[in-house]
Amino acid sequence: MENLIALLVAAPLLGAAVLLCGGRRLDAVGHWIGTVLAAASFVIGALLFADMLGKDAEAREIGQHLFSWIPVGDFQADIAFQLDQLSMTFVLLITGVGTLIHVYSIGYMEHDERRRRFFGYLNLFLAAMLLLVLADNYLLLYVGWEGVGLASYLLIGFWQHKPSAATAAKKAFLVNRVGDMGLSIAIMLMFTTFGTFAFGPVLGRVGETGEGTLTAIALMLLLAACGKSAQVPLQSWLGDAMEGPTPVSALIHAATMVTAGVYLIVRSADIFNAAPNAQLVVTVVGAVTLLFGAIVGCAKDDIKKALAGSTMSQIGYMVLAAGLGPIGYVFAIMHLVTHGFFKAGLFLGAGSVMHGMNDEVDMRKYGGLRKYMPVTFVTFGLGYLAIIGFPGLSGFFSKDKIIEAAFAKGGAEGWIVGGAALLGAALTAYYMTRVMLMTFFGEERWRHRATASPDQPDVEPAAEHQGAHAEPHPHESPKSMTIPMIVLAFGSVFAGAFFGIGDRFVHWLEPVTGHEHGHPPVSALTVTLSTVVVLLLGAGLAYLHYGRRPVPVVAPRGSLLTRAARRDLLQDDFNHVVLVRGGEHLTRSLVYVDHTLVDGVVNGTAASVGGLSGRLRRLQNGYARSYAVSMFGGAAVLIAATLLMRAV
Amino acid sequence: MNPVNYLYLAALLFTIGASGVLIRRNAIVVFMCVELMLNACNLALVAFSRMHGNLDGQIIAFFTMVVAAAEVVVGLAIIVSLFRSRHSASVDDASLMKL
Q: CB-CB: which of B18, B23, B95 is closest to A623?
């Protein structure tokens, strides 16, 4: 079975190579090749999973050594894979959700003439992400990490004819580079500290190293995770990444890319366990991001951007849980998997709505769509109930556990973090209810669209095949799009109960990440009840704001906080003022120093040498007799010197 | 007679030659002064040979004569061609080799 591991990565990689190099003759079948290879990868994953289930919990880890990549003296970089329960979970999530998104894209991208290329990029994305989670050392993980960055760049900027998409792709790539720097520094630190970067030796020898080094490595890993997982302070790319086609958003937010950071932290659990200060930073980053994302999600009118804020917030939950140590790792991964189901479902639903609405993304121009898109409405609705943590659905089991674990952290910290998580749950309920009500309920605001002023020209659809201002005719999407949504809705409903009841998921993952039962200061039942209460409060408040009152087509000015949240809580302004302006000032002062000091020294030297040469040049006057004088003078001096030396 | 006197004479001749080279403008005169310096050297060499009682100085004097003869041939040829082209034998007129 070990030999199948490489095939997991090879199948989508082959798809990417064939589709990207194959040229136009594959246009007609390209999407099928891509989908079949993604599905093949899923089937291989399922086979390996079945094989793994047949073994004892302790003997489930298998590996495959393909070849030595860079063997130089003590430096051993291998292309080697490791498949344990953690990797297995990711493999199934990535290939499963990935395949569904491939199927969905067949319908969604039907009218795009570059569909073959799109599927090539999707396959590349899957291959890179699989490489990331299957690598058995940090260097190979880094290869996958960069591959994910590349694929996301290509996909976010897929509609590169739109300047906003091209800019968003560039932004995502650049912000990710900052995180990548963290990962490369962490790998270098590991190599100087442990002399290797394979998971086994590095994580096994953590005890031999001082806490300072481990904290440094852990913080660098956290920086990397912040970049990929869009955590504060490297969160700014996620909202703009919505410029890509909707299936890309679903893929980035559910199966690949943003989950990589959580994987990295959980995979490096031993390092974080030995560096409590770094763990605290992880928890704080998670808590801040979960509130940040939720607040942004509450204010956005663009359905995809509201969902993007929600992703940021949910990943914040996972990072928070991962920062809690052994009481949280399992729940971080569990929430990641359930989130994969419902967030993919929500994004595909959003894509389906846009598909039926001429690519309109402004929720203020939706309304009352439940009649026209019943399947989308039901699947989106189930995803909605799952994400807010409605009792019995997926999100309830995973999120509730995280909130419990946060309280179980103990002391004032536990109360603060737990409080933040609870507040986040209320906000989640608020903004998701808002999305739900604005899209599927209320009056049909799109009917009056002709009179509405185009207040957001930058989100106007490209309008390839229909006039930009024609009244849309909402309709249900084709089967290729609805079936993946139905499958994902099943996942959103039942995955949590399947994992959570009887602690199945905990037992599954425990051998890899370790697990301790937390003891919250209040009983688990109290936590659960308060979670339910706050989510009902949040949802109720949203109903008061958006269900009872009609939703204005043009966004009201709103409070200071609303306006700030619409601008992503001023993240771009902050980056502009602090980083761009700061950078400009830094370069300007460096240029000044360069011009005055460095150039001054160089130019001064040159000028003085030039002046001296000008003087010396006068000696070269062309008169033979003056040269003769120099000769005689020189000879006289030499003789005098010789005589003097003799005398001494 | 004390051979050192010959050295004094050689030094005197050399000095006269050297000042001639530096002072005079006429190329022919300068050339003659150079010859004078060479011969002063020859005189000194022969005197040294006598003082030390070996033949080294005399042999070097012969070499000097050969070199001087060759130098006269080349030098006079240069002066003649210079005079032909510029109608002047002044060394200061031939001052083109400068910046």
A: B95
